[in-house]
Amino acid sequence: MESFDDSEMVYCPYNKEHKMLRKKLQQHILKCRVLYKDTVELMVCPFNKGHLIPEPEFFQHTKSCEDRKIIVHYQNSAPAVLDEDTRHPKIESEENWDDDNVPDYDPQIYCATANIVREPNGLFPAQRKAFIKEENRRQLGEDYEEEEKKPPKAKFRGETRPAPYEPRRPYSRRQ
Ligand SMILES: [Zn+2]
Ligand SMILES: [Zn+2]
To answer: What are the structural domain ranges in the chain?
Structure first.
């Protein structure tokens, strides 16, 4: 009977009764992996979620996983040194996104100061009139002349002949 050094002998992770030479294990495992695929649990490799490892092989895999080697390599490497090509000057910005003292954006205030055309939608007639007046003042600035300063048309009404359809009022007869 052929005798081997025990250190050369390994057990199949799927079945301890399968004992073989270490160099035969990889080939053997392929068979047992298929044979036992319905009875063993698949585990996710901690180094790569894409590695689904049958539970019997899991421990061995965590020691030999390619991605473990990459991670261990970076863990043992010194941090990358920045050279002139990877450095850039500190970017100065007037915007400070962390400043809590900046007032919140108010669309009404923005519209009142920005040079845009507003529409008096959804206002009552009195509000609408005031809005248009304010809007004209805003857009025309100092040149804007309020309508109230112009002579009201009613002032001339008594000096001109009333339109035939306009009924005379009692007080217009006053002398
Ligand atoms: Zn086996
Ligand atoms: Zn892995």
So the answer is: 6-69, 105-139
pLDDT value of position 140:
77
How many A from CA of 49 to the centre of ligand 1?
A: 25
Q: Has residue 51 got a pLDDT over 90?
A: yes
CB 10 within 8 A of CB 22: yes
Q: Tell which wins on pLDDT, 147 or 13.
A: 13
Determine whether 14 is exposed, middle or buried from the number of CB atoms within 10 Å of its CB (0-12, 13-18, 19+): buried
Mean pLDDT along residues 127-135 = 82
Distance 73 CA to ligand 2 centre (A): 15
CB 32 within 8 A of CB 18: yes
Residue where the block lists tokens 């359809």: 165
CB 75 within 8 A of CB 47: no
Q: Where residue 142 falls among pLDDT bands split at 50, 70, 90?
A: low
- Long-range own/partner contacts, residues 28-34 (CB < 8 A, 24 or more apart): 29/57, 33/57
